[in-house]
Amino acid sequence: MDVLEDDDDEDFTDARAYQSLSEDDEPRKPAAKKKENDDGLIVDPSFAAFHFASKNGPPKKLIIKKLKPLDKKNNEDSLKKNWELLSDSIEAIQQRCGVSTSLENLYQTVDTLCKEGKADETYLNLETKLENYLRKQCEEMRANGHTQGLDMLNAVNALWEMYIEQLEALISIFLVLDRFHAINNRQMQSIYDMGLTTFHGVVLDTFGLGQRIGLVLVDQITEERKGEKANTNLLRSSIRMLSALCVYTQLFEETFISASAAFYKEEGEKLVQELDTSAYLHHVDSRIREEETRCDLYLNYTTRVHLFNVLDARLIAKAMEIFVKKGAAELLEQTKYAELKLMYDLLGRVTNGRNILRTEFADFIKKHGRNLVNDPQRDATMVKDLMSFKERMDCCVSNSFAGDEKIGQAEKDAFDYFINTRPTRPAELIAKFMDARLRAGNKENSEEELDSVMYRAMQIFRFIQGKDVFEAFYKRDLAKRLLLSRSASVDAEKAMLLRLRQECGPGFTHKLEGMFKDMDLSIGLNQAFKQQMAAHGASLRPDLTVNVLTMGMWPKYDPSEVVIPPEMSQCLQQFSDFYTQKHSGRKLQWQHSLGQALLKAEFPHGTKELQVSLYQATVIVLFNSRNTWKYEDILAATKIEEKDLNRTLQSLACAKHKVLQKSPKGKDVEKSDEFTVNVDFTDKLHRIRISQVQMKETAAEKAHVEEEVSADRIYQIDAALVRTMKTRKTLTHQGLLQELFSQLRFPVKAVDVKTRIASLIERDYMTRDAADSNTYHYVA
């Protein structure tokens, strides 16, 4: 509604829609009394005029003027004339020719038609114009044979791009119609949407090109997958056209996903027969990258999920189980970490896919580990091989499997399984391996490397269930290192002891720590002995150092009655008197097999210092009295056991440093042999260490250690049973077993426990319940 203000008694009229009001015209008198509303606006109903109240004068009038009767003929003529102008311009745009009328005039023409009430007619005319244009173009496509294959796709795509360009130009001309008419009419679309609907109706439906376009697009992508070069721009533009027309899913996506499923199913079944695991992994990875690029370039984001679900199902879920079982072990054997990582990543794309890999990984470790542990011929390198194998598997878990906790736990369980398939032997070999590395003669590793080796050895040690077997062998070897001064480093020994304490608890290392404590106490004891000897003016020749060991902390040694030289015997008696005086009630038991001596030997070619065992020193000193000794005479004079005497004479007469000569010559010592001093002995070193020939451990000696371990286990089982029953007072058989298994450091069979329970019942430590034989009571 146009409202005119009557200012200074003059009228202003809009000639386009309203009649003029002359000065002589008088309005009709009001039929009702004027009223002033809340805004100060005085309403005169009879004149339909508005007056603004004024405090300083009479009110001003706003008059709504009557509409002129419209001339229908002139109105129709105006529509025809104006539409002809618009139609010519539309055709010029569609023909890509220059438009003679300015955009401003065209815009005003549309505005005029809308104000004349011809918006609907104009909208319909425009829609018809677009429809006729599209029909004409489709007829030309049909006439030119562009209705199939790539030619059709190119033609439709060219039409689409040109049509959208024209539509945007038309929107700028019909902007008034679009914004002020169509937008307020719910039954009408915007001009752009109407244009898309028209394109859909004519091109896709009427001429039936919709389904063909979708099929051609799918065929083009399939050819691209087979290695053919595709027109990416054409695919992208065509797919965007389908998306704009809201038929992407209907005409393309559904068909595309079905075709992709069929393609990858066929490819997967074929490649399973043709490729090895490594090649197949790289092929699948390549396919994934291709599809990701395809999604980024021209596919809609909604297709990505469906497409990769199909690819994962056909190429991974269906075939990867075959390839994992067929090739995972080979990849692990060859430590192909990149391919293993690729396998892990691919299996992560499917549900429970990595469970297959975890199982195969554990099976490989068990199989390979059993071969390492159960082959006696590999005992010499077993620990090294296990450490290397563990390091490889750890690298595989951390690098290839992204530190997956479940796979890491599977690795630990597999190591725990195969290491304990051979009882006691791995524990023994680990103890001996550590002994070899901690000895002073070991030159293979620096201090840092030694620490690293011990750390890796501890990783294997963790999997041993019978840790008491390890303790028995480690304690024997540690005693030799400490007593014979063969330890590479006291710091390294204590660092190893700390690792064992952290791993197994203080109870495990109690005796080992007691051994170090005895060595420290012995240092102070020797100083006190020498001070007392000096205070009394007593001579101490030869010089003597004694290690006093606490029985029970150290390994058991069989006492030996050896006839040592008088000079040495006198020194030992002096120390015994000193110790007995200092600690009354204690008794010393000398272990000559562990003694060492430093002898000064004069040879024709020079004087040498010989660092030897006490047995070796006892034999060498015999030659001060005479030059030649028979084997039987040496045996009678020293009373050294034959097996020890054989090793002693062999080290002196048959080893690297031959301070004695044997007759007849040979590598082995016989009872008929005679021995003399080697007057031709020479060496560039002044101090020479003559190592005792190490006798190989016999089956009987190993059995003896195992018997000691078994006996100790019986004591531990009995102690754990009594300790548990004393605390709990009453327990069922199953509950007692569970408590026992949680306390012991070694594997125990239920049958053995049952035997020990029966023994404790006989000794009145516990009783069975009268009503329930599976329940036990503690006897206070």
What does the model show?
The protein contains 28 helices and 14 strands. Strands 1-5-4-3-2 form a five-stranded antiparallel sheet, with no helix packed on it. Strands 6-7-11 form a three-stranded mixed sheet. With 780 residues, the protein is α+β, with helices and mostly antiparallel strands. The protein folds into eight domains: 1-69, no CATH class; 75-208, Up-down Bundle (5 helical Cullin repeat like); 210-318, Cullin Repeats (5 helical Cullin repeat like, Up-down Bundle); 320-421, 5 helical Cullin repeat like, CATH 1.20.1310; 423-504, Cullin Repeats (5 helical Cullin repeat like, Up-down Bundle); 518-582, no CATH class; 595-689, Ribosomal Protein S5, domain 2 (2-Layer Sandwich); 699-778, Winged helix-like DNA-binding domain superfamily/Winged helix DNA-binding domain (Arc Repressor Mutant, subunit A, Orthogonal Bundle), CATH 1.10.10.10. Strand 6 (596-603) and strand 7 form a beta hairpin. Helix 4 packs across helix 8. Helix content is 61%, strand content 7%.
